């Protein structure tokens, strides 16, 4: 299965995605307090030598883990990838406003050749045509303006950006925790 389980800590704070292998391991080790959500997945393991019965683990799509994970998750930085960037920017070129589902590029607002960094606050989604016209120029030199401002995703947004196959119940939960300025809240 490609779906991931959403792990939340005992205070209700979504902490991370779990592969099904990790989720089953946590369940077997007793680290899962309980599960909820609209989806249920059953995994069948090996045969028990004494009873001859296959072991089975059934897990819900959202798993509440024992303990707190808020501090660790709060300080983690969200890895910058093109996929996450384009989703942050809603597949919209920051310069012309065109929406593209393919062919977008990662533009460095202050070009790398001029000391710009490859970080969330200095990158935006950019169509190929705008990227070509922009080259190594600064926005001032071109008289261009950004149509929207870049921002560094927080932990909750990162969870939304990292998983391409979020189940609707997981999505509902994560969206309730997004900051007000988030473009992912729409
Ligand atoms: Zn463009």
Largest sheet features? 4 strands, mixed
Strand content: 15-25%
Number of strands: 6
Task: State the domain count.
Answer: 2
- Average pLDDT figure: 90
The distinct ligands, each listed once, are: zinc ion
Task: Briefly say what this structure is.
This protein has 186 residues and is an alpha+beta fold.
Name a few traits of the molecule.
two-stranded antiparallel sheet, binds zinc ion, DNA Binding (I), subunit A, alpha+beta, 7 helices, 186 residues, elongated
Structural write-up:
This protein is α+β, with helices and mostly antiparallel strands and 186 residues long. The protein is 26% helix and 24% strand. It has 7 helices and 6 strands. β1 (5-8) and β2 form a beta hairpin. The longest helix is centred in the first third of the chain and has 9 residues, at 20-28. The chain is elongated, with a radius of gyration of 21 Å. Zinc ion is lined by residues 93, 95-96, 98, 127, 129-130.
Topology:
Elements lengths: L4 E4 L5 E5 L1 H9 L3 E16 L6 E12 L4 H6 L6 H7 L16 E4 L14 E4 L1 H7 L4 H4 L12 H8 L5 H8 L11
Parallel strand pairs: 1-4
Antiparallel strand pairs: 1-2, 3-4, 5-6
């Amino acid at each position: 299965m490609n779906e991931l389980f959403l792990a939340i800590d005992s205070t209700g704070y979504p902490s991370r995605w779990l592969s099904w292998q990790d989720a089953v391991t946590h369940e077997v080790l007793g680290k899962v307090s309980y599960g909820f959500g609209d989806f249920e997945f059953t995994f069948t393991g090996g045969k028990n030598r004494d009873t001859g019965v296959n072991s089975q683990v059934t897990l819900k799509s959202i798993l509440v883990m024992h303990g707190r994970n808020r501090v660790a998750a709060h300080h983690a930085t969200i890895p910058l990838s093109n996929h996450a960037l384009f989703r942050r920017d809603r597949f919209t070129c920051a310069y012309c406003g065109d929406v593209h589902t393919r062919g977008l590029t990662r533009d460095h607002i202050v070009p790398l050749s001029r000391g710009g960094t490859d970080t969330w606050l200095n990158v935006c989604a950019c169509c190929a045509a705008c990227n070509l016209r922009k080259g190594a120029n600064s926005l001032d030199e071109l008289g261009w303006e950004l149509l929207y401002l870049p921002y560094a995703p927080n932990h909750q947004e990162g969870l939304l950006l990292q998983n391409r196959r979020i189940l609707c119940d997981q999505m509902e939960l994560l969206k309730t925790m997004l900051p007000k300025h988030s473009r992912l809240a729409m």
